[in-house]
Specification:
Blueprint lengths: L7 E3 L2 H10 L4 H16 L9 H19 L4 E3 L6 E4 L4 E7 L17 H9 L12 H5 L5 E9 L3 E9 L10 E11 L26
Parallel strand pairs: 1-7, 4-5
Antiparallel strand pairs: 2-3, 3-4, 5-6, 6-7
Length: 214
């Protein structure tokens, strides 16, 4: 069973660049996304709603991701009210996710609970690009359900971390394991802005639900 297989963790500079390039990404772009999300989080003020830091991190992270990828032919997709950025030729759909801690031995935990849309998307695209498709990506992937990869970012005012990882199928409200984890960024710096109210990050940044006002 797939969940019994250990995650592949890639953290050396050369392999990171190679694996990111295989899915149409670069170290430079992921760094820009992570720092944009951290800067967005830092814009939150004491008087803002408690979910503001997570919302701002998500908005700025997705914005930087899409601005960097649209020029490379990636497309915005919002099917099922889920915000994805897709490269149909590569067979990759990319998401931004706030997590508790990226680039650690423990699997990153999404701050927001995952719903049915997340589970269905992950389950529908379970193809191992680094084995089955490594020699003939275009022919095999085009027209298939794109594989889900997630840009996982964590920041706390003292550090910024980012990894790009491919989740395995999961049953509950949280990612349980990953096929492949690419560690891109793990940097610490002098403490800057820290919200005086603990950030709950309750904004659901993967399954976006739309409801009418009453």
């Amino acid at each position: 069973m797939e969940n019994q297989q250990q995650s592949t963790i890639v953290d050396d500079e050369i392999s990171v660049k190679q694996d990111l390039a295989a899915i149409g990404l670069s170290t430079e772009l992921i760094r820009k996304i992570a720092f944009a999300a951290a800067a967005g989080r830092a814009e939150s003020l004491r008087v803002d709603p408690v979910s503001a830091p997570g919302q701002l991190a998500y908005i700025h992270g997705v914005r930087e991701l899409r601005l960097g990828l649209e020029r490379e032919g990636w497309k915005i997709n919002r099917d099922g009210n889920v915000e994805a950025t897709v490269n149909y030729d590569l067979g990759i759909q990319l998401f931004f996710q706030n997590v508790d801690r990226a680039c650690s031995k423990r699997n990153p935990q999404a701050i927001s609970r995952k719903g049915k849309a997340s589970r269905d998307l992950v389950a529908a695209g379970q193809t191992d690009m680094f084995t089955e498709l490594s020699h003939d990506v275009g022919e095999n992937v085009h027209g298939a359900v794109p594989t889900v990869w997630i840009v996982c970012v964590s920041s706390d005012g003292r550090s910024v971390r980012a990894e790009v990882s491919r989740p395995k199928r999961f049953e509950g409200s949280q990612f349980e394991d990953f096929h492949h984890r690419i560690f891109v960024l793990d940097e610490s710096f002098e403490p800057g802005f820290e919200p005086s109210v603990r950030d709950s990050d309750t904004f659901d940044d993967f399954d976006v639900k739309i409801s009418r006002k009453l």
